[in-house]
Structures are given as structure tokens and as C-alpha cells.
Amino acid sequence: MRPRSTILVMAAIFLASGCTGEPTPLASGPTSSHRLIAPPTVVNSLTVQGVEDGRTVLLSDATRVHIKGVAAPEECWANAATAFAKAFLLDKPVKVDAGDPAIVDEVPLWLDDGTEYALLAVSQGVLRGDSPHDPAFAEAEVAATKAGLGLWGDPCRGQAKPPTSTPPPPPPPVATKPSLVPTTTAAPVFGCAIEYRVTYRWNGGYNADVAITNTGNTPISGWTLHWTFTRGQIVTDMWNATGKQSGADVNATNVAYTANIPVGGKQTVGYTGSTRYDNPTPTGFSLNNHPCPVR
Predict the structure, then answer these.
(1) Residues 221, 259: contact at Cβ < 8 Å?
(2) Where are the strands (E) in 39-129, listed by range?
(3) I need a labelling partner for 277 at 20 to 30 A (CA). Which of 15, 147, 177, 217 fits?
(4) Would you say 72 and 126 are in contact if contact means Cβ atoms under 8 Å apart?
């Protein structure tokens, strides 16, 4: 059985999107929303054998259930919600209560240490709550919203779908008098900088954020980010970009809603990795074949 404190610390640093265009770290420790309750006296101790999405799992007794207390995953944050569920539930022992026999496909679920999974997911912004009359769920969702965690941060901002990457039309030009002073236009300069941060660790794996800042004087439209691992790390999942790995080299190419990076703006790639050794920061970051320093 995993110690209770370990589960809470793991949950508190799980990845999420933030308010500044990059995922914001989750709370650094347990909060009042992480309710630890004793499961009902009569429960079934089972193992999660499959994760379909953020709230739908296959149990070791061959039943497919929805986890009670959370709404269906939002499209914008669906991949991250699935990754969260896999990290905390897949191949893990859980306790379930069948409850009303007439609603056999929706059950409460607790982690092995007594943590209520639905409340944990809501407190981290992974899913919306579906228990409007439970004050703990209401408090957890309000706190996640204020902190910009998960689907409440960029790029979702609580939306069901990612925002469109099409910029608004420019305002009509304003007529001005001709100037007698010759004007010069600065040559376009491509510039980038990287912020790399491991947001969550477990035995043999981790989640990390790679934030790209456009430090040049021209917007970036379409990009591929490259880096090189030095200790045999392997990318197993990626969001906000499409990943491809060959040996130690990784390429992450934008998806539709992350294609544009305005001057001074940021986009963030998040990924899940596995490692058998220590986990140093990758090297050789470049964007569209331009080297990017790590801040």
C-alpha cells in the first residue's frame, strides 16, 4: 500500500496548464480539498486494469465503470485527464462501492490509502465536479479555477475545446499625413528561450513541461522543438504537440491551437517520460533548427 503522504504529494505536483501561456505548477503540498475519508464498510478491493479516459476505467472484475463525482472529460483537457488517471489508477489497487444496484456503471472510487479519487481530480483541475451539493467538491473546483490549474489554465481556460489559433482581423488603417522622414524596417530576428521543469515524479517515470518563449521580433507560425536526452529517457505521452523520438533525439511539432507564438509570448509542451537512471535536463534545445538557451 502506498503511504498516504506520498499520494498527496504526488497529486499536488501533477502537471497542469497555467495562466501565463505555460502550465502552472500545482499546489506544493496537500490542501483542504484533498479529502481523505474512510471508504464504506462494505467495499470491493479491486485493481484498475484499463483506463479509457479520465473518469472511465476497467476493473479487475471485468466491469467498466464511470467514477462517480466527476463529469465527462472536457475535450480540451482530455489527453491530460487520461494521463492523470493512468498515473494514479492504472494497475493500482482501489476500493469501490457498488451503491445503488440500478446504477451499476457509476461508482465511487478510493485510492488504496483512502483518498477519494474524484475529489483529487477536481482539486487539480483535471475534471469538472459532478456533485453540486457536496461543499468539498465546490470548494475544490473554485480553488482550481482561481489557481488556473489544468483545464482552468492555458490553453483551455475552462473551455470545452481549445481556442482557435486564427487571430482576429486587424483594425482598419488610420489615414496619416505623409512623412518626410525616411522610415526603416527592422530585419526579422528569430529568437527563442526554453524553460524546462519536471512537474511530477514517480518510480521509473515523470511528467515535465517545456515552455517556449519567442524572444525574437517576429511572430512564430508553426514550429518543431528538438531536444536530446542524455540518460536513456523515453517519451511515452505528449500534449500540446505531436512527439516523435529516435534514440535520444526528440522532436515535438505544434498542433493547431499551439502553432502561433507571438513576440514575447509562450507555448508549452508537456510530456510523460520513463527513465531507468537519474533524470538530468535534456540538452540541445532548438526551435525550427535555431538553438534555444535554457533559462
Answers:
(1) yes
(2) 44-51, 56-59, 64-67, 93-96, 106-107, 109-111
(3) 15
(4) no
Tell which of 152, 178, 204 closes a domain: 152
Burial of 144 (0-12, 13-18, 19+ CB in 10 A): buried
Query: What total number of domains does the chain contain?
Result: 2
What's residue 256's pLDDT?
A: 92
CA distance 213 to 216: 9
Q: How far apart are CA 22 and CA 265, in angstroms?
A: 10
Q: Do the Cβ atoms of 82 and 73 come closer than 8 Å?
A: yes
- pLDDT tier for residue 245 given thresholds of 50, 70 and 90: very high
**249, pLDDT greater than 60:** yes
Same domain assignment for residues 33 and 100 = yes
Tell which wins on pLDDT, 34 or 44: 44
CA distance 180 to 178: 7
Residue from 62, 36, 34, 68 nearest 48 by CA: 62
Last residue of a domain, one of 137, 152, 167: 152
Based on the fold, state whether residues 85 and 225 are members of the same structural domain. no
